[in-house]
Amino acid sequence: MALLLTVNGEDRTSGHGAMTPLVDVLRDEFHLKGAKPVCREGFCGACTVLLDDHPVMACLLPAGLAVGARIRTVESLAPDGALSPLQQVMEEHDVVQCGMCFPGMLMSLSGFLAVTPRPTRDEVKAALSGNVCRCTGYERIIDAVLSL
Amino acid sequence: MAEVTLNFPRRDARDKLRGRTRYTIDRDVSGVLHAALLRAPVPSARILRIDTAAARAMPGVRAVVTAEHAPGRHGIGIADHPLFAAGRVRYHGEPMAAVAADTLAQAQAAAAAIVVELEPLPAVITMAEALGPSASLVHPDWRDYEVLVEGGAHGGNVAWEATVLRGDPEAAFARADVTVVESLFRVGRQNHLSFEPRAAIAAFEDGRCHIETSTQAPWTVRNVTAHLLDVLPSAVRVTVPAVGGGFGLKFDCALEPYAALLARHAEAPVRLVNSRQEEMLTCLSRENAEIRIRSAVTKDGEIAGREAVVLMDCGAYGGEQIFLTTMTAHTLGGNYKLGSVRLASRAVYTNTAPNGAFRACNGTYNTFALERHTDEICEAIGMDPLEFRRRNVLGDGNLGATGQIFEGDVLGPMLDRMAGLRAARPSKQAQAGDRLYGRATTVGTWFVFVGPSAATVNLNADGSATLVTSGVEIGSGSMMQGLPQIVAHTLGLKPQDVVVRAADTDAGGYDVGVGGGRTTVSLGAASMAAASEVRRKLLDVASGMLQTPPEGLTLANGRVEIAGRPGTGASIAEVAVQAQKLVGPIAGSGSFTGPGVAAMPGCAAGHFIDALDIPVFAVHECEVAVDPDTGHVEVLSYAVVQDVGRALNPRAIYGQIQGGVTQGLGYALHEEISIGADGSIRQSGFETYRVPLAQDVVPVEISLFEGAPSIGPLGTKGAGEVPILNVAAAIACAVANATGRRVQELPLTPPRVLELLLGRGLPLDFPHIATAWDDNLLRPLAAASWQGRRMAGPDAPGP
Amino acid sequence: MRMKTGADTFHVATTLHGAVAALADRGHAGAPLAGATWIMRAPLRGGPQQDRSYVALSRIDELRRVEIGERDITIGACVTHAALASALAHIDGCAALVQAAASSANPAVRQVATIGGNLCAWDFASADLVPALICLAANVELTSPDGVERISMERFLARRSELAPGTLLSRIVVARTACGSAHVRLPLRRSGDYPVAIVSLAVKLGQNSTVLTARAAVGSVEVVARRWETLEAGLVGRPLDPQAAAALAGRCLDDFVARDGVEAAGWYRLAVLPSLVRRAAQALLPHS
């Protein structure tokens, strides 16, 4: 039985089983490789996507549970190549290093900023507490967020 | 010339922010097979039988290989490392066989179906066990191994021993006017936890093997893979897409030979990617180490003599640790003026996963040990730690441990700079509240790992330039920012007009690899030399076009101008087009290697580097609050003064410092690896291997110290590696100051700190480090007349 | 390894009774699936493969509601940690539950992990909601083809690993009382990891902060969270004094046999309990 998924506003059909982690469907079947399977157990945040506007870990979400929900991945943030304001400040502040954590960081932050448009530094840090970055040491990412 | 210092943004940021960058794990290859490794479930065993017949018959299976298909050994210094466990298992997780199949599930199922009969053998899990009386040998046949580099003593479970002797420490310790201070330290391993695991895709094309891989050292991968496949190095081509974090993990050959061997047998492309659990179990971690250090110090704080024994756990195979024994001379033996010194640095085999290189290898824990020891000295002689450091740090004309003569006063003025920062900002002591407050300032000595690099620059008819090297962008930005800035500066172009080709061993010349802070220096120097040749040729052609001698021309903003007459010249594109007609396209090539600074003859034995070509210094300061109830350490403030030579892109360096300090905070406070009785690493993933999260970090106050001598291009030094160097030292000294306890071990996790506060733990004791320094040596020093010889052989070592 | 599962192995229930029937039908091969966070990572932790026939509960509206009545609060088993924290944020007496729900795991996991899943993860010693609900004297409602049964948390914890097929944790009921409550957890980092020890405490205070009733629970120290009755007995009848409470806790540590784990040894989990009790008591004093 095919799974009907709504990804970045588009209806997609997956041939995977319902218990397949959403991150594998996105990457292997839909070629949306922004979400990264890094720890596969919900601790690193690199596969974070938005599910009905809430950040969730795509490694822990069976694709079957995503049926009927709106899934947004990092690829949706700049659909025509124009960076979102969040992406723009990241580029302007030169905070990207290896870059593997950013797709997840950006989705966590997108979900968070939608409900907390004027956050404090502590709030941003708390919102990122499920997103590991091994390169940057976070603070300059947070500076960029606070400059929005 | 164009301005070279600028905050040039990185060109790879946009795609990385859009999720479009294709790392090795993201690459789609048509018809690719998936591979799995069968790993040993025990730390030490004799392999009685491996039967792959059932596995071969399973659905989708295309190839199964074992030691019989790749019998060679590789290594650094000593060729001790087979691709597959051959006859004997030496660590829990060691590959015994590899399978390629149509799907990953099929490959894993087939790997599980391989029949292996093992006869358990005694294992040495700790260095104390490995060096203990009647220890079983990890390599009973060590005498038969090919020695790739002469000079280090080795034998039994000691893979390599490097020693330093300068002056007469015996006499110094015997002086009546000295206080002798002895300290013991122990540190655990550190996992890089690079987000992209080790991953490789191998395919055979036209009789040659093409490997796409997540590596920092494409030429090492090329040479080691060729060696293990028993083909000519030129039969292997390595290309490297964007790398999702390295930090030293990927400075060695890793999965590539397995993928290549399987691709050869299956006659199809093969993809092999470590799971996170495999990454944890077999990470080439920063090694655990044990250190005994003694100093003879006068009441005025003069260090008359120093001696130390450093044990570095290399795990089951020597690898990088053999090379890294070298670094003790320059890290533990660094920072301070020493009247006399003797150091023994030993890489020890154990039946555990091999260790490897990690950002400021060896330096992090030796700096921790040295700086804590320094504070213990200050306590013993009653001197202020800052005053002691100010008096004793290396300055212009001072001798290092191996007798090299240091140039320039750097650490002293850097301490002054830090004092200025301290005076300018209020203490955060009030934030400690009811907790214990401590502060510390530490110094550190590191270096740039120079060595060979090559570069080619092509000037294109559109006025852009293409830079071709074997450099890899691992995230630090050197390939995206530093190198194009150097080439653009030399040619009068904008950095965005310099295209940097991704690493390809078929295109770029030999390179040691990206690591050791060497990218901007070594690849930068080669790139600048290549660009200079282009510049010469460009000016020659322009000279004809503009009827002006080359000396009368300037290059800036993409144009050649007659000096003093702006607007009269031509665009570089026009000159490039003209050149194509007259003399053919303009290209230049350049190369670089370390000049080889001299040590004092006879001081260093068994070292790969006797003296530092480019020393790099750092001063770190922090304030901490320690919770007396739970042992939690909160970092209240952190400041860094870093010797960068010259900052080409200050903002990028700030990013490296904030990130490097954060990794150092992980090492100092959170990241712990423990090894179970079964020889396996107990931390299997992100849950129990805890790296700092956003809430565990503070903004680092940064001051870049420019102007110290450097042979790097434009006076640069590597800036990305050193920020992690003295974080553990600074934190440990601050925690010791806060608690009044003797901090001897890392990481300072809450349980370990509470143990210290409650006085629960036993003081360290190293029965396997002899009290008399000489008794530790395999080779008495009188016999050590070996002189440093440069590395050769398939594995280029490095940090 | 990932399993491919077809229609027969993944059923999306839309009513509680439908779910119960589907689970009963599947027998021991069936398993309920709520937020799935625990089940999805189980294979990586040496646990079972995802080879059961799952009945997804997340579309059952009645299990996603928090009903705040005058006498009690009824929480559907599929309420997520994030929804729970938000629904009870300003309800008196629920502070322990709110703190537990708002601080467990990390924000993205809290979006999907459910209260029912947290209570049913019998091999998860560090579950935050368990001690919080014990201190609040919560009851759980089990629904099976035979009907509805309401049992105490303690009884549920003892039975949860061997519930009969078709028996589903459907609701959690917390009585509204005049108690104040606090949940103090100790992760090794600031947040983002599982706590190595948890103290949940609910007290009813009289004049001069005299403790009239007390209910304490300890999580993560032993394999399963449980009440700390000797601490409760020692607190009742005296004014609530954080230092005295900590001292009392220090004298009662023998009540526990702490577990050793990769992240912390047993001695550490015990050693920090007195200060966690002190913090909990501090949080419950009227002026704080």
Automatic annotation (TrEMBL), chain A:
Gene3D superfamilies given in the database record: 3.10.20.30, [2Fe-2S]-binding domain (1.10.150.120)
All copies of domain 2Fe-2S ferredoxin-type, residue ranges: 1-77
Listed GO MF terms: 2 iron, 2 sulfur cluster binding; metal ion binding; oxidoreductase activity
InterPro entries: 2Fe-2S-bd, 2Fe-2S-bd_dom_sf, 2Fe-2S_ferredoxin-like_sf, 2Fe-2S_ferredoxin-type, 2Fe2S_fd_BS, Beta-grasp_dom_sf, Diverse_Oxidoreductases
Record's keyword terms, sorted: 2Fe-2S, Iron, Iron-sulfur, Metal-binding, Oxidoreductase
Annotated protein name in UniProt: (2Fe-2S)-binding protein
Organism: Chelatococcus reniformis
UniProtKB/TrEMBL annotation, chain B:
A Pfam family assignment: MoCoBD_1
Gene Ontology MF terms in the entry: iron ion binding; oxidoreductase activity
Boundaries of every Aldehyde oxidase/xanthine dehydrogenase a/b hammerhead domain copy: 18-122
PANTHER family: XANTHINE DEHYDROGENASE, XANTHINE DEHYDROGENASE SUBUNIT D-RELATED
Protein name: Aldehyde oxidase
Organism per entry: Chelatococcus reniformis
